[in-house]
TrEMBL record:
This is Metal-dependent protein hydrolase. GO terms for cellular component: cytoplasm; nucleus. Pfam families: MYG1_exonuc. Belongs to the MYG1 family. It comes from the Eukaryota. InterPro entries: MYG1_exonuclease.
Length: 371
């Protein structure tokens, strides 16, 4: 995790894979979070750039934005200056979340000014925060370093979009006060476990007797470390897991008619996270008819699963659940009811079932399609 010092924080133990710790070495530099009176003109310090953001209470977007921008070649080893003084901000190399200007040509990335409506594009319409602005302009560089590919490589572009969708967009939306659902009804429960809430709780408590700028800057250092570590974990996941899984699912979709003439049954040759990929690839490839069942081997139990595809990624409703008369039955009782040998179970909701063999699972899926 991070060792906090008076001068900043140094990387102590981050538990990142070697491919991540190597290209993203900007995280190992001392990050100096300073008040505007801090001088960088000392002959004992090599010149480095200065990135500004506002002081006072902080949010997830500028904490993440400051972390991300330091992963770039242009702003590695940069100092973070926290101030609202326009004269100080004017002299800095980059400014995030303050200053009332969005001008990427001059590295100004504020989103609070009247008339600001910048979005990520590529089908995304959520108004950007300072984190989204930094990611929009520097995200490909960061990802390309991790993959050791050029920024124009298709895999870099795929991860660029996927990480925005799964990680950055929520931070943009929360910071801009955009509800997750189009409804006037109050939420059924409160969720204060997301990253933006956890970063917010790192602000100085009003009961803390020390409300000094130094104490506030130390808290912002911790906010940068928290937001940045989760961002890097997201990059790691997408590079190591998401991208290979997408290739597997694409190949299995292409072979679905070899499994069953209906084209509505897909078999995973190797289990991987498939659900989000399936929905995205069905839309991208204009798959018709939609896939109803996905078969895969449960490597722990060495049995096969028949899983009904849900109507949407976040839905518990299946496109075609397993037959009602099978639900809740197990083993011999289920095999007798289905007239299929080797049956193991069917869930009460019909979203998943099991068989001892791949052949048996396929028969269960084919029979379900006709019922």
């Amino acid at each position: 995790m991070w060792a906090i010092t008076r001068g900043g924080f140094n990387q102590k133990i981050f538990n990142l894979p070697k491919t991540l710790s190597r290209p993203l070495m900007a995280t190992s530099n001392v990050i100096r979070v300073s008040s505007p009176s801090y001088s960088t003109s000392s002959p004992n310090h090599a010149p480095f750039k200065r990135v500004g953001t506002h002081n006072g209470s902080f949010h997830c977007d500028e904490a993440l934005g400051c972390f991300m921008i330091r992963l770039t070649d242009k702003f590695s080893n940069s100092e973070i200056i926290r101030t609202r003084d326009p004269k100080v901000l004017e002299g800095l190399d980059a400014v995030l979340d303050v200053g009332g200007v969005y001008d990427p040509n001059h590295d100004r990335y504020d989103h609070h000014q009247k008339g600001f409506e910048e979005v990520f594009g590529h089908g995304f319409n959520t108004k950007l925060s300072s984190a989204g602005l930094v990611y929009k302009h520097f995200g490909k560089e960061i990802i390309a370093k991790e993959l050791q590919l050029g920024e124009d490589h298709p895999d870099v572009h795929r991860l660029f979009l996927a990480i925005y969708k799964s990680f950055v967009e929520a931070i943009d939306a929360i910071d801009n006060g955009i509800n997750q659902f189009d409804t006037d009804k109050p939420p059924k429960y409160v969720n204060n476990t997301h990253l933006s809430s956890r970063v917010g709780r790192l602000n100085l408590d009003w009961t803390d007797p020390d409300q000094s700028p130094e104490k506030e800057n130390e808290a912002f250092q911790r906010a940068m470390a928290l937001a940045g570590s989760e961002f890097l974990e997201s990059v790691q996941f997408h590079a190591r897991s998401w991208l290979p899984a997408r290739s597997i699912v694409m190949e299995c979709i292409a072979e679905r008619f070899d499994i069953d003439p209906s084209g509505e049954i897909m078999v995973l040759k190797r289990f991987c996270p498939w659900k989000l990929h399936l929905f995205e690839l069905e839309a991208e490839l204009k798959v018709e008819p939609l896939i109803k069942y996905v078969l895969y081997e449960d490597e722990r139990g060495k049995q096969w699963r028949v899983q009904a595809v849900s109507v949407s990624p976040d839905s518990f409703e299946s496109r075609k659940p397993l037959p009602a008369q099978w639900r809740g039955l197990r083993d011999d009782e289920l095999s007798k009811e289905t007239r299929i040998s080797g049956c193991v179970f069917v869930h009460m909701s019909g979203f998943i079932g099991g068989n001892q063999t791949d052949e048996g699972a396929l028969v269960m899926a084919r029979t379900s399609l006709k019922m």
